[in-house]
């Protein structure tokens, strides 16, 4: 199974797996699954770190690709197709990162690993 990790799921998988649900922890640790991380998550982590909202993220940011490699995760770049879909959702939710993750999950046919209830507004499968 291929899984798209929400930013908080990525942070949990890298830094504090105990914060993940038992189900998600099992899915993340199962090397039979393919994990993908959106470029939008790197953008979100870098932005929140710059703003002081994720002060401990410097370790992750300084070796982002290495951490993805340790997880066995692949990068999911943002395409024009993703951007157009994110902008076109009828949902009033304004967070561009959430909209992008939902668009990528939808267009790539991937379940989104997230505990965020906002994703119920989008036509995507959520795992937690």
Helix/sheet category: alpha/beta
Number of beta-strand segments = 5
CATH fold-level topology:
Rossmann fold
The percentage of residues in β strands lies in 5-15%
Low-confidence stretches: none
Radius of gyration: 14 Å
Query: Which range best describes the helical content: under 10%, 10-25%, 25-40%, 40-55%, 55-70% or over 70%?
Result: 40-55%
Largest sheet: 5 strands, parallel
Question: Mind telling me the CATH superfamily name?
Answer: 5'-nuclease
Shape: globular
Q: For this structure, what is the CATH class?
A: Alpha Beta
CATH architecture: 3-Layer(aba) Sandwich
Tally the helices: what do you get? Answer: 7
In words, what does this structure look like?
The chain is of the alpha/beta class. It has seven helices and five strands, in the order βααβαααβααββ. α6 (80-88) packs across α7. The chain is globular and about 35 Å long.
Secondary-structure topology with pairs:
Layout: E1 2-5, H1 7-15, H2 22-29, E2 34-38, H3 39-50, H4 58-62, H5 64-71, E3 73-76, H6 80-88, H7 96-108, E4 112-113, E5 126-127
Helix pairs in contact: 6-7
Which keywords apply here?
single chain, 128 residues, alpha/beta, Rossmann fold, five-stranded parallel β-sheet, 5 strands, 50% helix
Q: Can I get a quick summary?
A:
With 128 residues, this protein is of the alpha/beta class. Helix content is 50%, strand content 13%.
């Amino acid at each position: 199974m291929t899984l798209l990790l929400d930013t908080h799921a990525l942070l949990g998988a890298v830094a504090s797996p105990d914060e993940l649900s038992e189900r998600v922890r099992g899915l993340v640790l199962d090397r039979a699954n393919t994990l993908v991380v959106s470029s939008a998550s790197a953008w979100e982590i870098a932005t929140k770190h710059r703003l002081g909202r994720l002060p401990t993220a410097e370790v992750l940011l300084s070796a982002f690709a290495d951490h993805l490699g340790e997880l066995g995760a692949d990068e999911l770049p943002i395409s024009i197709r993703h951007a157009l879909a994110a902008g076109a959702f009828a949902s009033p939710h304004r967070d561009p990162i959430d909209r992008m993750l939902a668009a990528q999950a939808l267009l790539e046919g991937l379940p989104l690993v997230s505990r965020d209830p906002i994703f119920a507004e989008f036509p995507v499968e959520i795992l937690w």
